[in-house]
Amino acid sequence: MKPHRPVPALLALLALAGCAAADRAEVEPPGDPGALVLRVTELPGMLPPGGGAAVPPRFSLLADGRLIGPAGPAGAWPELVEHRVAPRDVTRLLRVAAGLPNQTESQVPDAPVLRVVTVSTGGRREVTVARTDPSAERLRAALAAHAEGTGVPYRPSAVAVIAVPDDPTAPAPPWPLPALTGAPLTGTGAGASCAVLRGGELETVRRAWTGPTVGRWRGGDAVWQVRIRPLLPDETDCADL
Q1: d(Cα 54, Cα 230) in Å, to the nearest integer?
Q2: Most buried one in 98, 174, 222, 237, CB count within 10 A?
Q3: What is the pTM of this model?
Q4: How many other C-beta atoms can be found within 10 angstroms of the C-beta atom of residue 43?
């Protein structure tokens, strides 16, 4: 694990933020070390089956300095890695993110966007901003700088299984558990279902997640396109996605 040290990208970000960051000097992280401080999710112009719930966050920063994100390119089973951010930089990143603009869908129609969630002692804020917005690019670069290096693997205690109906004639192995589908999702995930796996069920599915048809499974009399979404420390069930 790398030692805490100033990150050039973060220093550049703070310099560019200038007086705006000073105006948000009262923004402080939550007192709970395990609380979420900042989450950045990169949403494509066209969402995958399952909607936004199926897209894992690019960065999740907790009050204790844990920074969790994907471990390299997406593979068959989603792997996450954890880095450490110094307390001073946690506060700085939060203050800069708290000043991002909130752009409506009409301002960024069908374009890739960042969904940015900030949590402070003053409450929770969620904004959508174009991925090409300069302030969003600087924040993303600063977070990426803190995520350099190997880090340590993050092992989630639970994952969400997001299932969407697929071609019933497509080849698919049987789902390794008695039930595949869960509660119906709403919003951008309408038409999909979500269930949470823990313990032995999680390990059973992880071991079975191999082969050329990975992601497509037969459950009951139907075939489903399945995405695995690891739950992060501040998440407990599908309602948190």
Answers
A1: 10
A2: 98
A3: 0.86
A4: 20
Identify whether the C-beta of residue 163 lies closer than 8 Å to the C-beta of residue 193.
yes
pLDDT value of position 24: 53
Q: CA 239, CA 241: separation in Å to the nearest integer?
A: 6
Nearest CA to 230 among 200, 206, 204, 211?
206
* Cβ neighbours of residue 75 closer than 8 Å, sequence gap 6 or more: none
Q: What is the mean pLDDT of each run of 10 residues along the chain (241 residues)?
A: 50 46 70 97 89 94 97 82 97 96 68 93 94 94 95 96 95 94 93 97 94 82 94 96 92
Whole-number CA gyration radius for the chain: 19
How far apart are the C-alpha atoms of 116 and 40, rounded to whole Å? 5
Compute CA distances 208 → 162, 173, 204, 212, 213, whole Å. Answer: 16, 10, 6, 12, 11
Q: How many CB atoms lie within 10 A of CB 144?
A: 15
Start-to-end C-alpha separation, the chain = 29
Buried b (16+ CB within 10 A) or exposed e, 13-31: bbeebeeebeebeebebbe
Closest residue by Cα to residue 191 from 76, 57, 53, 77: 53
Look at residue 210 in the predicted model and tell me its pLDDT. Answer: 82
Segment 102-106 long-range contacts (CB within 8 Å, at least 24 positions apart):
102/127, 102/128, 102/129, 103/127, 103/128, 103/129, 103/130, 103/133, 104/128
Helical spans, DSSP H, in the chain: 8-17, 19-23, 87-97, 134-146, 199-208
